């Protein structure tokens, strides 16, 4: 399968995916990396790995629809089988999301359905949670609300702040995303209606 990764920032998840997909037996290859921001570290990481990159700068568009139309056209030039959102910080229109339904994944830094949206680490701390974590889900029209495929948990320590907690959660992201993407590439994980399935069994 052909993998296309969308990024907005530092690209540490992208780096983990680059390293995993380099392994000889990995069932997919990253064919392109796209960003909505020029000059981000994630694009540098892709270039260093010899992967094609493109930028569709959202600031140059008058509306979300125009931006999404341009982004979709760029993506389709690469004929991906799966679109992987890795720290991609734009809300996508329903038309865009539905065009890639069942073949677009996102990673979100919380134990969904808790804490959709931003500032998830601080919110987990403020709530006095003992456990926190990360989720990988299919992207649907429901922001951060698509069917969850897999989660990884971390313990919250008494002396954690948002930064220390984020760092611990991100280590889990870098382990989990390559694994889940592998399952997707192998056809083991699918979106069946409103449910994610693993080897045909609803999750
Ligand atoms: C990750 O923590 C992801 O969960 C969140 O944004 C961060 C992206 O980090 N949505 P990176 O760009 O992969 O380093």
UniProtKB/TrEMBL annotation:
Keywords: Purine biosynthesis, Transferase. Residues 2-180 form the Formyl transferase N-terminal domain. Its EC number is 2.1.2.2. Gene3D superfamilies: Formyl transferase, N-terminal domain. (6R)-10-formyltetrahydrofolate binds at residues 64, 89-92, 106. Transmembrane segments: none annotated. The record marks 144 as: Raises pKa of active site His. GO terms for molecular function: phosphoribosylglycinamide formyltransferase activity. Pathway: Purine metabolism; IMP biosynthesis via de novo pathway; N(2)-formyl-N(1)-(5-phospho-D-ribosyl)glycinamide from N(1)-(5-phospho-D-ribosyl)glycinamide (10-formyl THF route): step 1/1. It catalyses: N(1)-(5-phospho-beta-D-ribosyl)glycinamide + (6R)-10-formyltetrahydrofolate = N(2)-formyl-N(1)-(5-phospho-beta-D-ribosyl)glycinamide + (6S)-5,6,7,8-tetrahydrofolate + H(+). N(1)-(5-phospho-beta-D-ribosyl)glycinamide binds at residues 11-13. The active site is at 108 (proton donor). Pfam families: Formyl_trans_N. NCBIfam families: PurN. Belongs to the GART family. Catalyzes the transfer of a formyl group from 10-formyltetrahydrofolate to 5-phospho-ribosyl-glycinamide (GAR), producing 5-phospho-ribosyl-N-formylglycinamide (FGAR) and tetrahydrofolate. This is Phosphoribosylglycinamide formyltransferase. It comes from Marinobacter xestospongiae. The lineage of its organism: Bacteria, Pseudomonadati, Pseudomonadota, Gammaproteobacteria, Pseudomonadales.
């Amino acid at each position: 399968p052909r993998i296309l990764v969308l990024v907005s920032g530092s690209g540490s998840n992208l780096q983990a995916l680059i390293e995993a997909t380099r392994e000889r037996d990995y069932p997919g290859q990253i064919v392109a990396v796209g960003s909505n921001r020029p000059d981000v570290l994630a694009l540098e990481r892709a270039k260093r790995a010899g992967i094609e990159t493109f930028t569709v700068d959202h600031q140059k568009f008058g509306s979300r629809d125009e931006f999404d139309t341009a982004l979709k056209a760029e993506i389709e030039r690469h004929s991906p089988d799966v679109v992987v959102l890795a720290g991609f910080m734009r809300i996508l229109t329903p038309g865009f999301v539905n065009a890639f339904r069942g073949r677009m994944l996102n990673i979100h830094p919380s134990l969904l359905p808790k804490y959709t949206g931003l500032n998830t680490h601080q919110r987990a701390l403020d709530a006095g949670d003992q456990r926190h974590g990360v989720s990988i889900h299919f992207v649907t029209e429901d922001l951060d609300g698509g069917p969850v495929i897999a989660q990884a948990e971390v313990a919250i320590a008494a002396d954690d702040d948002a930064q220390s907690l984020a760092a611990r959660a991100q280590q889990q992201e870098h382990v989990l995303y390559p694994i889940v993407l592998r399952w997707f590439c192998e056809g083991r994980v699918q979106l069946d209606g409103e449910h994610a399935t693993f080897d045909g069994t609803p999750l």
